[in-house]
Design a protein that fits this description.
The chain is an alpha/beta fold and 238 residues long. The chain has a single domain, classed as 3-Layer(aba) Sandwich (Rossmann fold), CATH 3.40.50. The protein contains nine helices and eleven strands. It has a four-stranded parallel sheet, with helices on both faces. Strands 9-6-11 form a three-stranded mixed sheet. Helix 6 crosses helix 8.
Length: 238
Amino acid sequence: MAHRRPVRDPVERAGPRDGEDEPVAQVGRLGGAEVGGGRRLVVAGTCAEYDWSDDCCTPSTPLRPATLYGTCKNALRQIVGAYAATAGLSTAWGRIFFTFGPGEPSERLIASVARALVTGASVACTTGTQVRDFLYVEDLADALAALLESDVEGTLDLGSGEPRTLREILERLELLAGRRDVARFGQLPQRAEAARIVADVGRLRDEVRWQPRHGLDEGLARTLAWWSTDSHLEAGSR
């Protein structure tokens, strides 16, 4: 049994604002795994559970969430662990990092720039020096399925493991679209945020034996193609 909400990323313009009560709601679903005969439970956590004040993330990075969402997720992890030990469930907790792809809300970073590339608009950005770990949404789904089918237990990071600056990602998106200067770097003030948030994919790669199937450029191209459809542009403007 695997449970998670639709993909959400854990930061501003890529992060949950309306789902802080979601971890609490998940507690009530735990009993369904045992009642339904399930013996394996995989739950989606978030990299927002980590302490982002230093270089993140390594096996020694402490859990010190700075947001309500991250705090709720971390508390849910502890509840799931206690429940699983009592019920005899095999359990894995996958901390999701940053995701992108078709269907992403238009206010999120990559989606907003992809949409602007199609419509001819521009997007004000910071300098884009923040280093992040982005994973294509289909790869995230595949990673969760692989984790569910494995016998790996405990916590592990779900990401690409590839550090990239936000500027590099958006400039590659512009290159794929054949346009430049859509992302207006430096027009927004730099916020007080973590300089680097990258998944430690050691367990995912070595124990689950999983790696992404889509490269960054392929995922960006698919995202751009999705936004190029008129119906998606209309939906994104609502």
